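debug: dumping io for the single-chain case to check the tokenizer round-trip. Nothing else runs in this session.
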Amino acid sequence: MRSGTDIAANLSDAERLIRDAAGQGAAFIATPETTHLVQKDAARLFDVLQHPDDDPALPFFAKLSKELGITLLIGSLALRTVGQRAVNRSHLFGTDGQLIATYDKAHMFDVGLGQGETYSESTNYDAGDRAVLADIPGAKLGLTICYDVRFPYLYRQLAQAGAQIITIPSAFTRPTGKAHWEVLLRARAIETGSYILAPAQGGLHEDGRKTWGHSMVIDPWGEVAALLDHDMPDVLLADLDLAKVEAARTRIPSLQHDRTLSGP
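debug: decoded output
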């Protein structure tokens, strides 16, 4: 996606792409981080940010998932909590439109990339404090968001708890995307023997932010199973063979080989 500052327009764009994917046979559909709003200006962000009970995106996507009979992961929504604080939260809807699970982004993107490009998510967002594993038809799904990808322990924890598929909806910057996006996604797949699904924001957004795009699906052996090799809004389809999860974990059973070392 290339979400902007108009929530209604973003919902319309998301609906179009979700319907396109469902029309091509997708049973499980995932959207990027901050699906319904990309706004880096904090004052303008909180002018439109809603509490979960009031946000229009939640009933909108619940109704859509039920109508289409799909399992739908909204990669994340920015939601107001208390005062001038927010969370970055994934929402997983079942085929009946019911909310199956939520996950709050655990690691805040507080970085300085140089050349004036800095980010401080913790200024406005509260970090989540729990890992989330959910059952979807035929599989166990682990939920993560964007910057989480740089913290392997989370992915190991999810895989050891049974996750066969792990989602990483993202809005990666262009500098970090070009250098690290594919490498990190493939590393998390290899380390866990899991499918990695990484729907991404891409392009120049209304608020001036530039994101990398290049949505990807990585198989449990670390191979790229599907790729959008651009930053334009689009649908990426992949068939997941969960037997490959067991095969990868049998060939290299590293999830069973943890040790606690002394030092340094």
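debug: round-trip ok. The chain is about 30% helix and 25% strand.
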